[in-house]
Amino acid sequence: MTLNTDWAVRWIKGSAAVVSEHRVELITLDREIGDGDHGENLDRGFSAVLPKLDDLPADATPGDALKLVATTLISTVGGAAGPLYGTAYLKAAGAVAGHAELDGEAVVAMLTAARDGIVLRGKAEAGDKTMVDAWTPAVDAASSALADGLGEAAILDAAATAAEAGARATEPLVARKGRASYLGERAIGHRDPGAQSSALLLRVAADAAAGV
Amino acid sequence: MKKLINDPRRVVEEAVAGFEAAHGDVVAVSHDPIYITRKDAPKQGKVALVSGGGSGHEPLHGGFVGFGMLDAAVPGPVFTSPTPDPILAATKAVDGGAGVLHIVKNYTGDVLNFETAADLAAADGIDVQTVIVDDDVAVKDSLYTAGRRGVAGTVLVEKIAGAAAERGDDLAAVAAIATRVNAVTRSMGVALTPCVVPHAGEPSFILADDEIEIGIGIHGEPGRERIKIEPADAIVDRILAPIVDDLPFASGDRVLLFVNGLGGTPQVELYIVFRRAAEALAERGITVSRTLVGNFVTSLEMQGMSITVMKLDDELEQLWDAPVETAALRWGR
Lengths: 212, 333
Prior knowledge:
The complex is a heterodimer of chains A (212) and B (333). By secondary structure, chain A is mainly alpha-helical. Chain A has helices spanning 5-21, 23-33, 38-53, 62-76, 81-95, 104-122, 132-147, 152-168, 193-210. In chain A, helix 1 packs across helix 9, helix 2 (23-33) runs antiparallel to helix 9 and helix 7 (132-147) runs antiparallel to helix 8 (152-168). Helix content of chain A is 68%, strand content 0%. Chain B is of the alpha/beta class. Chain B has 2 domains: 8-183, Rossmann fold (3-Layer(aba) Sandwich); 185-320, Hypothetical Protein Tm841, Chain: A,domain 3. Helices cover 32% and strands 25% of the residues of chain B. Chain B contains 8 helices and 15 strands. Chain B has helices spanning 11-23, 84-94, 108-123, 153-166, 171-183, 232-246, 267-283, 314-321; strands at residues 27-31, 34-38, 48-55, 66-67, 72-78, 100-105, 128-133, 185-191, 211-214, 225-228, 254-261, 287-294, 304-311, 324-326, 330-331. In chain B, strand 1 (27-31) and strand 2 form a beta hairpin. In chain B, helix 2 crosses helix 3 (108-123), helix 4 (153-166) runs antiparallel to helix 5 and helix 6 (232-246) crosses helix 7. Chains A and B meet through helix 4 and helix 5 of A and helix 3 of B.
């Protein structure tokens, strides 16, 4: 399936649905090692995006749709997740600006820009038990998939699978950024809620590309 | 959990409406987006001070808006930083042409949202500087954490920087004073009970009947250790020692001693705490020359308190004593 604006809109609508569906799970993960607002805030943000999709012009590109997500999340989510996800979508939009359809290279560029944006804002590194621990494996897997000559949908699937593994791999870690870092060793055994929501959103991107 | 609320989703807007009705003599309120300004803002030629953060810590920050303190406060949802939009709107509303100082408690969300708002304000030609408050000694400040948290010391930063702005200091000078206050201020808290965020409906953590959390954060984040309850004097000694050792405060110093209630502890217990804290400082040869006791930086209905000690000099004493007229602090005017 072509990665055009319809795909981007399906990804965004699917993101709102999956965040709403996993709201309590994300709140629970965040209450264990943070302040318990991640599911609530992200749900508020993506719910606010939905009505704005109707205002996208007919000739909007996938980048335009992602930029709409970025500005809406920045103004509605709050907490740390608002600026972090907002920056991710903004940088992703910039990386694919002007493309009516995304090829494999554009997908990798989009994911890389999103990850770099999160690192720039949050200053976290791999292994700090943050969103970065889902995004960096996703970017690496997408790059390998592109090098192996796979198509766009398969590249996104590889990214989502790696993000899911990355989110699971945060469980044994001690957090070094964000509110969980105050817990020290008490964070061990809990999955990072930001890494988990990142994996969920990337899975929706892959599903939207696969026509699921 | 019993709460005096109507709808968990309308907690902040209804509280802000009540705040406006009660304190319209000193503040004005914008409802969309939500922010509170001093009634006579913008003050032309005066550096404006803007602070904010999650709600649930009242009277912080709205209660400190007014003459001699903040020009604006931006309340976010309970325990969640406001987004950049209202911070930007408040910054623009109070800018009197002399620049704006953002006073931000050191939490990842607050720092990121204020940073984004400051970038946007700068793009609109407003000179913004930011001071991060991180007075909580309970947290290790290292490469391995988000750094120390901003807690009750924030009130002292807002009061003294506000007085400096009121006397006509420029933006760089006000920022320098705020930084200096933060540098000589240390705090630590203790929780006897957890708090319940309205939309979560459940306690943010669990403490057994006979347990207390030493080094608690103002959102219920854990501190250094969980121990069995002790007499008040022993608890005070336990949290005062790391505060005094950290700066360090030394014999001959003059300090401001601030005992802050976290919301659910009665005033009578705060004075029992103050009594021992003052005595323990005197034993170390430290003179308490200014004081503050009460619920100023709270954590919803949490029982507990924090102790803050600020090292004073002549200028900081003068700025502390300078007139202030806000909902929560008023003197000299």
